[in-house]
Structure formats: C-alpha cells, structure tokens
Fold this protein.
Amino acid sequence: LDTVVTNVPENSVPHFYADATATTELASTTVTPMNDTIFYVQLHDTITNCRSTIDPINVTIIALPTFTLTSPVTGCGGMSIDLSTAISDISAGAVINYYSDAAATTELASSMVVVENDSVFYVRAENAAGCMSAIEALTVNATPAPTFTVVAPAGVCEGHGVNLNSTVTNLSANSTAYFYSDAAATQEITN
C-alpha cells in the first residue's frame, strides 16, 4: 500500500488501517485481499505528533482470466498442428499465449507448431489489465508420418499406362498411398 501514497511531507510517516476510524493498523503494507476492499491511510508527523485526515484506499480485485484446456492434441509428425484447437471458454477480452517452457519465458510466435515427436507446450491467458492465469501444460501427441519408398517405373512405351501403385513399396502399416499431378498435392489422381 505504501506505493499508492505519494507526496508525503518530510517528517511524516503513513500508517495503514483496516477500518475508517484508524483503530486496526495493518501489520504489513503488502496486502492480498480476495475481494474489493477499502483500506485507510493516515499520516503521522514524527515531530509534532499531528495526524492527517484518514483517507480511503480502494483496492479493486480484477478476476484472473480463465479458459478450458483439452489436452492432449494429436497430429501428424512433421505437419502443422494448431494448439488453439485445445482451447475453449476463454474469459471475455482475454488472449491466450503459448510457450515452449514451463516458466512461460519463451513465447511462441503463434499457436501453429510443427513437431516430429510427442511434445509439451504451455498455455496461459492474459486479460487487458495484465492479470494472468495459471500456466497449464498442453501435450501434443505426434503420430509418426507414414513412410514409403518410391521405385521409378521402367521405361513406358508411348501410349501405354503406368500403374502408380506399383511405384510405392515399403508403405507403413495402416497407410494408404495417394497420387497427385502437382507437387503441392492439390490435384489428386483418382483413376
């Protein structure tokens, strides 16, 4: 509380109280109220022993932001995974920050991450007043990307087709090969 009292005259000392009649002096100037609270301050002149009027100090409690975290998030290894899909029910006006460390000192540039293996990221909410929620761990389970080997077909005579399935070997279990006519994999070959 002593940081909110300014312009204290020389030879004066602020005293802080829990009541408006200045009978219950606080043991410490550091307080942690759970609800909006009014404390009181009175200056005491150490030479004259005179006292100022008793003034209120209104302490308004701003609720910590909250959110719901659904962990783990699952995605394919080597592909982009959006951590924000694990977040819901965010307090009005709050923003979610993502971190690579449990102390929340290294903030990620965005909620999009690429992981090769199972990983843990950390999340917390912050409201406009700068109040922050507790840090929560968000686990990302990375499913290994399927693997395969491409075997180039032997020369193909003009006018004859190639069975593309025969060019893929050593395909990971439970995987299906898809074929595309473009490198961005946007034009699937369906027959």
The radius of gyration is 32 Å.
